[in-house]
Amino acid sequence: MTFIRPMVILFGLVLIWQAIVLVTGVPAYILPGPINVAEAALSHTGPLFEHAMTTLLEIIAGLLIGTLLGALNALVMIASRSVKRWLLPVLVISQAIPVFALAPLLVLWLGYGMSSKIAMAVLIIFFPVTAAFYDGMRSTEPEWLELAQVMNAKPMAIIRHIRIPAALPAFASGLRVATAVAPIGAVVGEWVGSSKGLGFYMLHANARMQIDIMFAALSLLCIVSLTLYFLVDRAMIKIVYWQKEGNKKEESHL
Amino acid sequence: MNNSVKKDARFERRPVAPSVTLEQVSFAYSGEQIFSSLNFTVKGGQWTCLIGPSGCGKSTLLRLISGTLREGLSGRIHFSDGSSHKGLTAWMSQKDLLLPWLSVEENVCLGARLRGEMTAQKRSKAMSLLEDAGLGEYANALPSSLSGGIRQRVALLRTLMEERSVILMDEPFSALDALTRLKLQDLAARLVEGATVLMVTHDPLEALRLGHRIYVMTDRPAKVSDALIPPGCPPRNPGDSAIISMQATLLKRLEGRDNS
Amino acid sequence: MKHKCLIVFFIVAALMAGGPNTSAASEKITVVLDWFINPDHGPLFVALEKGFFSRQGLDVSFQVPSNPNDPPKLVAAKNADIAVSYQPQHYIHVDQGLPLVRIATLVATPLNTLVVLADSDIKNIAQLKGKTVGYSIGGFETVILKVMLESQGLSLDTVKLVNVNFSLSPSLFSKSTDAVIGAFRNFELNQMDIEGRPGRAFYVEEYGIPSYDELILVARRDDVKALKFRKFVDALEEGAQFLVNHPDESWRLFIRGRKDLDNQLNRLAWQHTLPRFALRPGALDRARYQRFAKFLKKNGLINKIPQLDQYAVELPIAHP
């Protein structure tokens, strides 16, 4: 597990950022330099941490619920072709509606607490998870299914012992996408109506023209998202343990 | 082969494995009439090889017997002991079909696992099969770490683990190199003794080594030749002069020159 | 010969028809509004439509921001000349280093209001105890609420604050909040009337907030010496004056070419905003602005009280 390369890249980006600020002389209320942002972060660690915890909770809850619902939905569609025929178009249409447009409705229905943010995250990740898992199960090696048929396996056993494990690599891809995207749902939900969270805190700082604090909150959000992605990525490697050698090597993305 | 006595006690087979008879079987697929009123019998307890040019319907025939192809079939396929083919056949393909997330031992037990019949007994049966075939050290390995030859050996053991009286094989050794192929042919011949085997192959030498009877399938709709019965017991010596001359006969039949 | 005359005639006619306001040197001014065009911008659009700007040799264009926090930043970054801003927020911007000064006032009274449903049992501020108050993030609302509550002997933590973004009246209707702050009295109250669920208003300046100008115009500190700003304020003054004298015609000018503004809400809001426009847009009440600065510093919204001429000026006369 090497962290050196990402650290070097990060450091390089920060240097470039500071250089841009120095060279262009852009004022702090438009683009603060990394040093300003670091100072703001250090003098506001208390609220930053508190709000980060709220947003993190929303993201994790959204991921868990969305993944569970997405997986169940894919299983139902695989198990029953007639259900799938009705469900799949509904799924595709639902994906065409930008979640941002639904955000105010969700806040109206679920209130200003965490549930509306969790619901946003769930909505955003539901389709990637269910589509990836369903596609994975659908494209199971047909000769495996044929072998199972000859072996007299019951349909549920085929799904449980063959389709699901065979679909895990695809599911893992879907889950990686979901992890990258869930924070967006949580933050947008916070923008629309909330009293806590990094999205809310960023709005607040922006309204008071405290752009350095806003960037500090933004940076913290990035760190939270990256850490989450890293953890999920590693977990997926463990879950899809059999893809270690050959041309399907499961490489960590980081 | 001193193991054969032990083996028969371990695997409770029916006294004589059943024969498989196709009666007036017709089958069409995407507008092509593959079989038209075909009559064909696979003799019980013997190893039958079916050889023929690609695409003439050999694999289709196997699938009709295994039951995986049903739509569009007319005529009768029946087993001499009266049972239907459901649950009576074992299948081995050219691909090893080992599930990559299961260990070798778990793959051997795949049938039991899928039917919900896993027991400790089954597991120890699988282990002894593996050890007997010299694969005991790989029991916990994942398929991706093994060579093609070992994987196909495991597939063979999985097929035998099913303890079916009728074994269907679709070019099971064609993807292996010549030496490995010979070794696996020997292993298979040793282990399936007593079952009814129908093997599709495109290698005349393989058919001659392994088959009690050899049929050539040609034309569209497919026609099956008379049986060719090589002398001696399988697995036969490839260097045997009788085998070599029969190879020439087989090739002629394949080309359609010898119409006997 | 006849054809040549005709051609010359048409060319001259075309030149003369090409724009009645193409005077010798027309200076461009971009004004970024605070929000979508609404009756609060009355004097600006009256001045535009009556040609008061072009009479001063100004070519004024108005921009609507994508984000209400942008206008001051755009002017500070020299992407626009003038921004419509809010007096309370202006101190915060200056405190954070934006080099802006107020050059004129658009709306000379506060518009911010605490609103409850008329049929709710909250009849005075003290009854807010234990209730939920919704707000839009502007940076200022918690202070308003704190001061209003303190005027009745309550502290801020006796109420639950919830950010409802801009859905102020919907949150009242759905009962997810008991009261909202950040509603503009000329707007939200009319909107609630139209929906058939009227509100009850508590005016912030009546509960301890020093009076202030809700809408002001700001420009870059270094640029205000330019003559065009003086001319702009003069034209704006003419617009405000015309509005007072001809309110109905002014409404027609406001919606001219902007048919989507002609709706019931705007018509009602127009009537309620009329008395609140600054009659003397260029005038600066120094003590009033300094009083508000002290108020903000006392409540922790700014770090230091700036020198008045650094953030608010009366532009000098054009030709002394």
Topology at a glance:
The complex is a heterotrimer of chains A (254), B (260) and C (320).
Chain A: H1 4-24, H2 34-43, H3 45-79, H4 81-96, H5 99-110, H6 114-138, H7 142-150, H8 155-192, H9 198-207, H10 211-239
Chain B: H1 3-10, E1 20-29, E2 32-42, E3 47-51, H2 58-66, E4 73-79, E5 89-92, H3 104-108, H4 110-115, H5 120-132, H6 148-161, E6 166-170, H7 178-191, E7 196-201, H8 204-210, E8 213-218, E9 223-224, H9 241-255
Parallel strand pairs in B: 3-7, 3-8, 5-6, 6-7
Antiparallel strand pairs in B: 1-2, 1-4, 8-9
Helix pairs in contact in B: 5-6, 6-7, 8-9
Chain C: H1 2-17, E1 27-32, H2 42-49, H3 52-55, E2 58-63, H4 70-76, E3 82-85, H5 87-95, E4 100-107, E5 112-117, E6 132-135, H6 141-150, E7 160-163, H7 168-173, E8 179-184, H8 188-194, E9 199-203, E10 215-220, H9 227-245, H10 247-255, H11 264-273, H12 286-298, H13 308-311
Parallel strand pairs in C: 1-2, 1-3, 6-7, 6-8
Antiparallel strand pairs in C: 3-10, 4-10, 5-8, 5-9
Helix pairs in contact in C: 2-9, 2-10, 9-10
* Domains of chain A (count): 1
Rg of chain A, Cα atoms, Å: 22 Å
Low-pLDDT windows of residues of chain B = 1-8
Q: Tell me the β content of chain B.
A: 15-25%
**CATH class annotation of the largest domain in chain B:** Alpha Beta
Named at the architecture level, the CATH assignment of chain A is Orthogonal Bundle
- Return Rg of chain B in Å: 18 Å
Oligomer: heterotrimer
State the order of secondary-structure elements of chain A, H for helix, E for strand.
HHHHHHHHHH
Q: What is the strand tally of chain B?
A: 9
Order of helices and strands of chain B: HEEEHEEHHHHEHEHEEH
